[in-house]
Recover the amino acids of this structure.
């Protein structure tokens, strides 16, 4: 199992999404958090399972929610650069790629 490191923007957007879903319906934010945690564990256990999306970055779709984890496999860890809503502003996180390349 690999170590997962979240970019600060990725962590912020994840927490914002948790808050948003919780405001929509009590318990939905908690469910979103749980599903994302399961997806992160899947990425940590088998990162090569997910297809390359852009350069060396891969995408793991979040079940039951319109979000994806965008990540790269680094030598000593997995870097998550976005927990992105897949229908709002597609590719908005592309500028983060340059920050790490």
């Amino acid at each position: 199992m690999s170590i997962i490191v979240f970019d600060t923007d990725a962590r912020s957007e994840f927490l914002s999404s948790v808050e948003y879903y919780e405001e929509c319906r009590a318990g939905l934010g908690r469910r979103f958090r749980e599903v994302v945690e399961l997806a992160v564990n899947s990425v940590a256990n088998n990162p090569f399972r997910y297809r390359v999306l852009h350069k060396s970055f891969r995408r793991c779709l979040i079940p039951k929610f319109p979000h994806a984890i965008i990540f790269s496999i680094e030598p000593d860890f997995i870097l998550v650069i976005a927990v992105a809503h897949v229908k709002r502003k597609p590719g908005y996180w592309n500028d983060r790629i340059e920050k790490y390349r």
Notes: The first helix runs from residue 8 to 24. The chain has a mean pLDDT of 93. The CA atoms of residues 1 and 79 lie 14 Å apart.
